[in-house]
Amino acid sequence: MAQQATTIQNLTDEIKLLREQVSYLTQKRYGKSSEQMPLNGQTSLFDEPDAQDDGERPRRRRSNYYL
């Protein structure tokens, strides 16, 4: 009888631990995340104009398709 009580207690503790892990990982995966502001002196990838911003778009090569 004492062995059953010990087994039940161990399993109960394990279930509690697993539920805490699920809760933590769910919050980490689906919870709110803070968006960080860029640091001073850090350049942005989008501050510079496009390299091909000369008013014309590059022409696409046309493929010949035959049926």
UniProtKB/TrEMBL annotation:
Residues 1-28 form a coiled coil. Residues 18-60 form the Transposase TnpC homeodomain domain. Signal peptide: none annotated. Keywords: Coiled coil. Residues 29-67 are annotated as: Disordered. Residues 58-67 have a biased composition (Basic residues). The lineage of its organism: Bacteria, Bacillati, Bacillota, Bacilli, Lactobacillales. The keyword Coiled coil applies. It comes from Lactobacillus crispatus. This is IS66 family transposase. It comes from the Bacteria. InterPro entries: Transposase_TnpC_homeodom. Residues 33-45 have a biased composition (Polar residues).
